[in-house]
Backbone:
């Protein structure tokens, strides 16, 4: 007799489970994605103890007949469901088919499913079929997973606390809901509903349902396309930043992805609109010819590779940057937040959505559900955009920046006085303004330096006393490699004995007070600027640093003329609203707001 033992199917399932299922959210993901594939419009996720005790997913999808229901738990279901190239077209996937078998091998699963004719009940525990019988009919599928990893204690140890498991599930459903605004999701833990979207197919409304009024009211719509990509969605104003990246959502062809290049492009576009360490809330849908997307990446990692990623990142960067530029206004000092406003806001977005969708009805990308129908993939190529729409979108235009700052530039701000030796009070006919003197001055200096660098406009000033700086051997070596960047800016640098350099000239934009200190900081920055020296990044950090150092500080007296100059310079800036680190530089109180405060109006 042969001594080779064939590994039992259940053992294979348990091993696969170890790879695919790491936490309760992995189970939720598989079950919910099945529901989406079944064309569900309403998906309810009911958890007990964050999913550790029980995960139940109920959908109103098309359901299955008995054979399919049993097959769904077979490891070999997989191959029947997709062909190799379909990996990306079936948008979600994971290890479809195999996943359900894997889950059932390490837990207790009950499924009730009905396709309108057959109603089936299946009960499996640890991979063993305990029962399969008639269910009691309700179209859709209800699947319950209890006691995950009950038979694999080693795995069980990896499950985290209820809070962590629950948070993972919530985060997953949140992202999924944003990628599927046409599906209504509801998530409850221990019978308490924590999350609910209406499935209105209105992205802004979905954002509202997830993040609330303050966020949804401060989102800017983006929409642009080029030969390869169509991007659309919403980006948050810099007033609603977060301390983590969880609010950044990128969706490629309806599938949520995490891609470092995309995230970086988005963050870079907010440069000088936000603090370091803060991240914007964005929901960006990217539509692309599916053949440009590389699928050979582990599906649970949600990463993708894409050809022309450079084109895409530049495109996203530019679109966001232009949108921010066109839409930023002086923030109002007073934030209103009443219920009436919320109702009006919702009415508005619904109205706007209606107008948009009637207009978009023949738009290929909006055929729902886009990727559930694999054969549709061909027709999703970007060239199919109807001409009228193309024109319509061009009007929104990312190429031509409409200079809304024109209005700001026409502003004539009159200084009234200085408060706390830090803020300037100013006025025009309409409004009262409060300006942070350091932030404003820093912005003026920053834009001035950036412009000089960009225009390669070099004019230099001789130092009265040349500045000698002694470096360590390693710093000296690094400096030699990078000093040409400084020389291009107008610095004259010579070697001066062992590991020592001497600086004789500097560019004129380096103001003549504290130039020694400034030059030393610049040399420091050249040397420490990461292992790989990125010239553009260095120049930007340098401009920020120098403009901060040379600007008037808080607690400094300003004369009336100095205030006038500063306000005048500020109104000429491209982005007068923030300092280069993203702090606000100017706030507005409208006349109406003042009157309201003093109850002159109601
Ligand atoms: Zn500063
Ligand atoms: Zn600053």
Residues:
């Amino acid at each position: 007799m042969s001594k080779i033992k064939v590994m039992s199917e259940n053992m294979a399932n348990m091993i696969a489970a170890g790879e695919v299922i790491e936490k309760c959210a992995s189970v939720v993901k598989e079950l919910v994605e099945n529901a989406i594939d079944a064309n569900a419009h309403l998906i309810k996720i009911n958890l007990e103890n964050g999913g550790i005790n029980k995960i139940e997913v109920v959908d109103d999808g098309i359901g299955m007949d008995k054979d399919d229901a049993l097959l769904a738990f077979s490891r070999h279901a997989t191959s029947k469901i997709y062909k190799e190239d379909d990996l990306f077209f079936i948008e979600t996937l994971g290890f479809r088919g195999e996943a359900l078998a894997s889950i059932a091998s390490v837990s207790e699963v009950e499924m009730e499913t009905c396709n309108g004719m057959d109603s089936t009940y299946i009960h499996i525990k640890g991979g063993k079929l305990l029962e399969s019988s008639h269910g009691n009919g309700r179209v859709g599928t209800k699947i319950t997973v209890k006691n995950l990893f009950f038979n694999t204690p080693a795995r069980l140890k990896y499950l985290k606390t209820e809070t962590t498991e629950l948070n993972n599930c919530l985060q997953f459903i949140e992202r999924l809901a944003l990628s599927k605004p046409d599906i209504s999701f509801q998530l409850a833990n221990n019978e308490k509903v924590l999350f609910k979207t209406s499935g209105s197919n209105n992205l802004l409304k979905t954002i509202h349902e997830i993040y609330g009024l303050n966020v949804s009211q401060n989102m800017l719509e983006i929409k642009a396309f080029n030969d390869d990509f169509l991007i659309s969605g919403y980006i948050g104003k810099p007033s609603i930043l977060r301390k983590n990246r969880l609010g950044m959502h990128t969706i490629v062809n309806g599938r949520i992805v995490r891609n470092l290049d995309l995230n970086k492009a988005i963050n870079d576009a907010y440069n000088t609109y936000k603090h370091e360490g803060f991240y914007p809330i964005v929901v960006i849908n990217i539509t692309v010819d599916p053949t440009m997307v590389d699928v050979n990446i582990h599906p649970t990692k949600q990463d993708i590779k894409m050809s022309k990623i450079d084109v895409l990142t530049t495109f996203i960067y530019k679109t966001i940057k232009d949108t921010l530029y066109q839409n930023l206004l002086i923030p109002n000092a007073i934030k209103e937040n009443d219920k009436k406003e919320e109702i009006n806001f919702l009415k508005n977005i619904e109205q706007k959505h209606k107008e948009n969708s009637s207009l978009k009805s023949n738009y290929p990308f909006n055929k729902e559900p886009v990727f559930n129908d694999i054969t549709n993939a061909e027709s999703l190529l970007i060239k199919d955009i109807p001409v009228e729409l193309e024109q319509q979108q061009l009007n929104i235009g990312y190429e031509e920046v409409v200079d809304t700052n024109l209005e700001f530039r026409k502003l004539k701000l009159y200084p009234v006085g200085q408060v706390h030796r830090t803020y300037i009070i100013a006025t025009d006919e309409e409004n009262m303004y409060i300006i942070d003197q350091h932030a404003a001055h820093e912005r003026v200096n920053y834009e001035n330096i950036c412009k000089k660098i960009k225009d390669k406009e070099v004019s230099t000033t001789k130092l009265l006393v040349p500045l000698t700086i002694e470096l360590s051997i390693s710093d000296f070596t690094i400096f030699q490699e990078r000093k040409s960047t400084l020389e291009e800016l107008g610095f004259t640098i010579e070697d001066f004995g062992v590991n020592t350099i001497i600086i004789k000239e500097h560019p004129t934009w380096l103001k003549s007070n504290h130039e020694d200190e400034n030059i030393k900081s610049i040399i420091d920055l050249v040397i420490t600027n990461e292992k790989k020296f990125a010239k553009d990044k260095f120049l930007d950090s340098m401009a920020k640093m120098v403009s901060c150092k040379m600007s008037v500080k808080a607690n400094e007296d300003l004369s009336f003329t100095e205030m006038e100059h500063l306000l005048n310079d500020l109104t000429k800036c491209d982005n007068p609203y923030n300092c280069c680190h993203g702090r606000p530089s100017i706030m507005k109180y409208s006349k109406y707001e003042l009157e309201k405060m003093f109850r002159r109006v109601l």
Q: What stands out?
A: Confidence is low (pLDDT under 50) at residues 1-6, 77-96, 359-403. The first strand starts at residue 42 and ends at 48. Residues 438, 442, 548, 579 surround zinc ion (ligand 1) (CB under 6 Å). The radius of gyration is 30 Å.
